Amino acid sequence: MHAIIYSKIRHLLSNVCQLDLDRSLADQGPFDLILHKLTDQIAKANQGNNIAKSRVERFCQFTQAHREIPVIDPLENLYKLLDRHVQYKFVQECDIMEEGCHFFTPAFVEFMDSDVARNKALMEENDVQFPFVCKPSVAHGSQLSHKMSIIFNEEGLRDVQPPCVAQTFINHNALLCKIFVIGHSHYIVERPSIKNFSAGNFETIFFNSHDVSKAESSSFLNELDETEMEHPVVKPDYRMLEHLVTRMRNKLGLDLFGIDVIIENHTGRYAVIDINGFPGYDGVPDFFQLLLDLLQSRLASTEPPFPRPVPPHDLSHVTGPPRDSSINSCTCIFQHLQKEPNCQSIYELDIANQMTTDRETFLPQDKSTECHDKEALLLLTLSGDQTNYAPHSDKCNSLWTAKNDVTN
């Protein structure tokens, strides 16, 4: 399989490099396609980081001036996912959520402060019920975006940490369906989730959503009560989920995203509880090959798959005022062909760790350099004949370029 993918990428690509967002992008071209994961940089920009803001603005200006270059995915289409309140309103207004449909988004409201009386009134106005899940408004760019809580009563309203979104908790027998979308392909992974709860005199539960939904998760939050284990878990209808993917992909205008879906007990309705841009794709077999298929199809197409609206110049409306949070950005998102010319295999794509999976074999020219705290942009230039990729080390601005030392 590796040899097949290696041959395919040799045919597809002639130059892969990481773009330096701190200098003119026009000077680094020409480019035929841009693949990026800039969500962390956008989050930093919206939290007041001027360097990140300059990078995002430079990228937006360049892509708007060169709309003939395919971008996966357009930033203007990603904006609606970066803030959970904006995201949930968008999903709620999609026609697939219309009355009588099998899909819905649980009732939600945004809390901008810790005033218990005000927040209780907001809950009533928006039909949010106890228990509810309290999620940070910022959906990307920080470990804090995964820190959530379940609040069971009015007393628990004192535990909210604004700005946040309160979303009615839906009992779903601790089963989460994660849908990973790669262009026209998608893959559904079933993961552990939170057990059933009801309102009552319970203390607030704090948890990390990333830990609770891991494939190997064994948290007490995943364990159904004995009385509930007697009832069969409602299994997802994959045809319904495929329909959801098709509709949401067209609405979002994205090629790389993930949808978190749970199935409501007793009704069997599908609740969309989160959408993520460029997720980790953990558990997706042959993701690298699917990504290459997507890149090839986009390069071969003469028409963009989605309309590209003009993005806003002011990014502050996406996540509100600057928020203080710790950022852990490590986003070298595309792995590189093996440097040794006699070994025809490639490195696996590792979005989670953002590094090559074969550290013993991979020997960069500067072993002390790793690509941390730098957003990666993959640019594919098909005008050359280079096929062997090797890193050129620059501590802050790592630029990956092709080396013409392998014969085809």
From TrEMBL:
Q: Which GO terms describe its molecular function?
A: ATP binding; inositol-1,3,4-trisphosphate 5-kinase activity; inositol-1,3,4-trisphosphate 6-kinase activity; inositol-3,4,5,6-tetrakisphosphate 1-kinase activity; magnesium ion binding
List UniProt keywords, sorted A-Z: ATP-binding, Kinase, Magnesium, Metal-binding, Nucleotide-binding, Transferase
Alphabetical GO biological process terms: inositol trisphosphate metabolic process
List each copy of the Inositol 1,3,4-trisphosphate 5/6-kinase ATP-grasp domain by range.
102-295
Q: Which Pfam families match?
A: Ins134_P3_kin, Ins134_P3_kin_N
> Which cofactors are required for activity?
Mg(2+)
Inositol-tetrakisphosphate 1-kinase N-terminal domain location, by residue?
15-76
InterPro entries (alphabetical): Inositol_tetrakis-P_1-kinase, InsP(3)kin_ATP-grasp, ITPK1_N
Q: Name one GO cellular component term.
A: cytoplasm
- Stored Gene3D superfamilies: 3.30.1490.220, 3.40.50.11370, ATP-grasp fold, B domain (3.30.470.20)
Q: Does the keyword Signal apply?
A: no
Entry-linked PANTHER family = INOSITOL-TETRAKISPHOSPHATE 1-KINASE
Q: State the family named in the UniProt similarity comment for this chain.
A: Belongs to the ITPK1 family.
Q: What is the protein named?
A: Inositol-tetrakisphosphate 1-kinase
The root-end lineage is: Eukaryota, Metazoa, Spiralia, Lophotrochozoa, Annelida
